[in-house]
């Protein structure tokens, strides 16, 4: 989907879009399930979400992580691995038939101490044609290319990008989110960082508990 117009110009600075100005590429290693504690069913996932043309797929059961690339027409190239639970594009998210709710908790320990899953409306994915940005090459002309995709608006709240100032202001919600999967299992997720040690945006650190069992 192609969107044009001067009204889109404020969006051009979000998510580190001026890559050569704010975010200098730096080599990084150690991606994947970097910390796993089998005794507590918890750990940390570290992924490279710097690319606008890539989805990263995560399977909590097998500790597998895979990627697909987004073609010019918005389709994904490459086969999506079976059994995935969560996918991330930059800071955007989608689930594999799951749903998500934002909790009041600001730590996984606090959530676990509650002894229960939160009640309320769990948000399912929605179809969108104006959320998944894939091409910023025409940004100076106010042109942004989007890929049509499923999108979970609730989990994507874990990071807010305020483009009313320059440079943009990035604010993590700090909240714990519950991903309820289609098979009835639940994962507790908390975004703990969106940058690497060199302050390059797009490197995601996610603490998790899976499966959540009370």
Question: What do you see in this structure?
Answer:
The chain is mainly beta. It is 5% helix and 43% strand. It has a seven-stranded antiparallel β-sheet, with no helix packed on it. It has a five-stranded antiparallel β-sheet with strand order 6-5-4-7-8, with no helix packed on it. The protein has a three-stranded antiparallel β-sheet with strand order 1-12-11, with no helix packed on it. A hairpin with a 5-residue loop joins strand 16 and strand 17. The longest helix has 7 residues, at 108-114. It is globular, with a radius of gyration of 17 Å.
Describe the oligomeric state of these chains in a short phrase: single chain
Which structural class should the secondary elements be placed in?
mainly beta
Number of helices: 2
Spatial shape: globular
Q: Percent helix among the residues? A: under 10%
Q: Which ranges are low-confidence, i.e. pLDDT below 50, for 5 or more consecutive residues?
A: 2-27
- The rounded distance between the terminal residues' Cα atoms is 44 Å
Which strands sit side by side, in order, in the main sheet? Answer: 2-3-17-16-15-9-10
Strand/helix succession: EHEEEEEEEEHEEEEEEEE
Average the pLDDT over all residues and give the rounded result. Answer: 86
The proportion of strand residues reads: 35-45%
């Amino acid at each position: 989907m192609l969107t044009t117009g001067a009204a889109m110009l404020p969006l051009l600075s979000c998510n580190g879009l001026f890559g050569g100005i704010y975010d200098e590429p730096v080599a990084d290693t150690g991606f994947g399930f970097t910390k796993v504690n089998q005794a507590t069913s918890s750990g940390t996932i570290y992924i490279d979400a710097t690319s606008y043309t890539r989805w990263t797929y995560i399977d909590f059961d097998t500790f597998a992580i895979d990627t697909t690339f987004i073609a010019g027409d918005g389709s994904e190239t490459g086969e999506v691995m079976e059994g995935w639970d969560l996918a991330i594009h930059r800071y955007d998210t989608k689930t594999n038939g799951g749903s998500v709710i934002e909790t009041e908790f600001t730590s996984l320990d606090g959530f676990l101490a509650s002894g229960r899953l939160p009640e309320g409306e769990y948000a399912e994915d929605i179809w969108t044609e104006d959320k998944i940005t894939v091409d910023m090459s025409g940004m100076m002309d106010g042109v942004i290319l989007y890929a049509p995709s499923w999108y979970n608006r609730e989990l994507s709240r874990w990071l807010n990008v305020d483009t009313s100032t320059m440079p943009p202001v990035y604010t993590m919600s700090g909240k714990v989110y519950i991903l309820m999967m289609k098979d009835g299992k639940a994962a507790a997720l908390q975004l703990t960082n969106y940058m690497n040690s060199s302050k390059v945006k797009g490197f995601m650190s996610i603490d998790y508990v899976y499966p959540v069992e009370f």
